[in-house]
Amino acid sequence: MSLLDALAASPVFFVCTTFVVGLAVGSFLNVVIYRLPVMLEREWRAQTTAGPAEPAHAPGDGLPARFNLMVPRSACPKCRTQITALQNIPVLSWLWLRGRCAGCGTRICARYPLVELLTGAMSAVVAWRFGLRWEAGAALMLTWFLVALAFIDVDTQLLPDRLTLPLVWLGLLVNLALPPLGDGGLHGNTLSLPVSLTSSVIGATAGYLSLWSVFQIFRLLTGKEGMGYGDFKLLAALGAWLGWRMLLPVILVAAATGAVVGIAMLTIRGRGRGSPIAFGPFLAAAGWIMLLCGPSLVEAYLGLYGIH
User: Fold this and answer.
1) What's the DSSP call for residue 244?
2) pLDDT tens profile 94-122
3) How do residues 4-38 score in pLDDT, each as one tens digit?
4) What's the CA gap between 69 and 28, in Å, rounded?
5) Residue 26 in contact with residue 90, Cβ under 8 Å?
6) What is the pLDDT of residues 208-231, one digit of tens each?
7) Strand (E) or helix (H) holding 105
8) Out of 56, 117, 270, 291, which residue is the most buried by the measure of CB atoms under 10 Å away?
9) Rounded to whole angstroms, how far apart are CA atoms 248 and 233?
10) What are phi and psi of 240, to 5 degrees?
């Protein structure tokens, strides 16, 4: 019996396998979350600074000149000891090393295994929700993008075009390639993917323009910028994946969650009212919730008013 047959025969085996794959992907996402902003900062610095070729170490960051998602190998930021394959097993290596570098004993941030566990758990939930079908692969891809974008936004207040723009195009291509379930995934269908290409295109367009309009109105009224352009592109990506019908639920859930978290931070941490709060993680979380159960939630809400 092939692996594919085994996965098809046992939903539990499929979910567990996806969890393990998600752990490995989470390990790679840790690399993306840390390195992509550094790569972008170097590019921006090179574009704004005229001078000779980049030196052996980029100015100010102390990192090798050749620095991307693949090279150099991961190393301790303090002693620069390279991390071996056995020390890079998701979650287990961190537990085995007791959260410290094997070379110098420096504490390793607990967020690394937490990102791996989060990615694994979210991947397993997607596998359970969609089952062994093409839509599950697409949903996993969207999930992994959202995890990376959320943590990058938390760290840097940025949603890089290198992730958001490909995510828009991938959403359009997925809904072009897969047969639609219905009108925007509603009317009796419980899965959010795929939607019709028309719904996908309208979702991408409306997602961008809706937040762009709010941004412009807020700037006219206050003279301040309330959000970044990356938020427009992320909502456009979610519209491309989930269709235009999911845009309002995504915005409502993200705004409500953001408001609760913002009030909590003001109360508990005493942060000033002017302190920026990344909106991308709330959009990402709301989009993922709608990916899992958006059509069912919308149908249930409309049912309260006798609308079917």
Assistant:
1) G
2) 999 888 888 888 898 999 999 999 999 99
3) 778 878 899 999 999 999 999 999 999 999 999 99
4) 9
5) yes
6) 999 999 889 988 888 887 788 999
7) none
8) 291
9) 15
10) -65, -35
Predicted TM-score (pTM) of this structure? 0.89
Residue position matching structure tokens 């419980």: 190
C-alpha–C-alpha distance, residues 88 and 79, integer Å = 17
Burial code of 82-97, b = ≥16 C-beta within 10 A, e = fewer?
ebeeebebbbebbeee
Could you give the count of Cα atoms lying within 13 Å of 122 in the half-sphere of its Cβ? 26
Percentage, residues of the chain above pLDDT 70: 87
Tell me the average pLDDT across 61-87: 82
Contacts of 97-106 with C-beta under 8 Å, sequence gap 24+, read 101/76, 103/76, 103/79, 104/76, 104/78, 104/79, 106/76, 106/77, 106/78, 106/79
Tens digit of each residue's pLDDT (9 = 90 or more) over 187-205: 556 788 899 999 999 999 9
Tell me the C-alpha distance between 178 and 41, whole Å. 37
Determine which helix (DSSP H) or strand (DSSP E) holds 77, and give its type and residue range: none
Where in the chain are the domains? 1-132, 134-308
Its sign, for the CA torsion 83, 86, 91, 96, is negative
Q: How many CA atoms lie within 13 A of 193 on its CB side?
A: 34
Rounded Cα distance, 42 and 45, in Å: 5
The residue behind tokens 């302190």 is 275
Tokens of 16: 């567990």
The two three-digit tokens of residue 241, written as one number: 């994946």
- 214 CB-side CA count, 13 A: 14
Give the integer Cα–Cα distance in Å for 42 and 49. 10
